[in-house]
TrEMBL record:
GO cellular component: cell cortex; cytoplasmic vesicle; cytoskeleton; plasma membrane
Residue numbers spanned by region Disordered: 414-473
Residues in SH3 domain copies: 472-533
Taxonomic placement: Eukaryota, Metazoa, Chordata, Craniata, Vertebrata
Protein name: Formin-binding protein 1-like
Example GO biological process: autophagy
Ranges annotated as biased composition (Basic and acidic residues): 414-424
All copies of domain REM-1, residue ranges: 331-408
The keyword Cytoplasm is annotated on this UniProt entry: yes
Organism for this UniProt entry: Aptenodytes forsteri (Emperor penguin)
Amino acid sequence: DQFDNLDKHTQWGIDFLEKYAKFVKERIEIEQNYAKQLRNLVKKYCPKRSPKDEEPRFTSCIAFFNILNELNDYAGQREVVAEEMGHRVYGELMRYSHDLKTERKMHLQEGRKAQQYLDMCWKQMDNSKKKFERECKEAEKAQQSYERLDNDTNATKADVEKAKQQLNLRTHMADENKNEYAAQLQNFNGEQHKHYYIVIPQIYKQLQEMDERRTIKLSECYKGFADSERKVIPIISKCLEGMILAAKSVDEHRDSQLVIDCFKSGFEPPGDFPFEDYSQNIYRTISDGTISTPKQEGMRIDSKTTVGKAKGKLWLFGKKPKGPALEDFSHLPPEQRRKKLQQRIDELNRELQKETDQKDALIKMKDVYEKNPQMGDPGSLQPKLTETMSNMDRLRMEIHKNEAWLSEVEGKVAARSDRRHSSDINHLVTQGRESPEGSYTDDANQEVRGPPQQHAHPNEFDDEFEDDDPLPAIGHCKAIYPFDGHNEGTLAMKEGEILYIIEEDKGDGWTRARRHNGEEGYVPTSYIDVTLEKNSKGA
């Protein structure tokens, strides 16, 4: 008798199922947005593709990029969770909700039909009952009328007979209605018993089974909701372990060494500046000034301009020129030049290996064509083979040239440290030659061109006496490659040009040379073929 309440309860069950489905849908959207935001974050901080030289080399940077990769994988697992929930939980809930609504509607329609049929049987029984009641009342009236006429002496026999026939008719109709009422009553009682003991219990049982299946489905979806998360936990744990390993891979000492290797120039620290005594005129006597004053005065004036001129030429030894990069990287510091040359040699060797492999393949193919002319013409491979051989010769020449530059740099870097102590000693000897009064020896050539002073301060003393007699040539050289000489202090030259050598390379990659017209300047040592005189080093 609680059909309406069961109707409400089953509707509430379906509403609750759809409410949970909505919850799962919103959780899926959260997972998808979370994964999307994580991927955008990784994309934002992940470096773009860069040239090989600009790739990150520090362990801290590499570890961070590994963490970004692991985080990207973690975002992928969040997408897997969302996909699993959508397929296994939300999709299943929506399909089951649709089936549940259809089944509930069918059961409720059956219950309503059974109730309507019972109501119809009750109405038929009630109508037959009322009709029987009405006929009984009519029969009682007919009997009373007959008895009244029968006791009335004034009534005719015809009236009495008519009343008797009417009584018999009403009594017969009452008996028929009685029988119909009894049949309808018996039918209604049977249908009512069937309704409450068979039909409705069966419908309620079906509704109960439907509601229990709904509850079981919710339980399975709860479990699937958790399983979707639990399945990806091992992979997520690996992602987190990868982040921890990336953190452990950071090596501060290696990063520091990379910084040192990147910026190491190979230059020697600058030498001490000489003491410039401006008090010479105070202590100079009249007799001393008669002969040596002009030379000392000239030297004093030159010493003032020495610093400025030396600063202008510091780029030759310690600063990077602003001009274009040279083929032999002589514009770079020695250590960086050595690295660049080694990289170029490695690249050339790889190219040479490729050309060698290609040559071997062409030779094999040519042999096959010669043995089997139907497969191809051997002569068609000759132009390609010639081109490959030419490329190999060119690469070998390039490798030989760069190896010569590399050996030159490595030799000079090694010699630079050996020469450092002797330079310090020569610098002390130069200072020791100055007298307490600040006077110098009369021989200016010895002061300027002597080996100790050349090794100690080539930049300062080269220009200090540029107005004196030109330096003697200690040899000659031939330009192997052309040199623009657009920077200050350099000397331009053409390929094959002959120049005089007036100062050897001090280990910085530059040689001082002079043209026939007297123009002087520095040229790259690697660009010339030097021939020194036999006694030049002792001069």
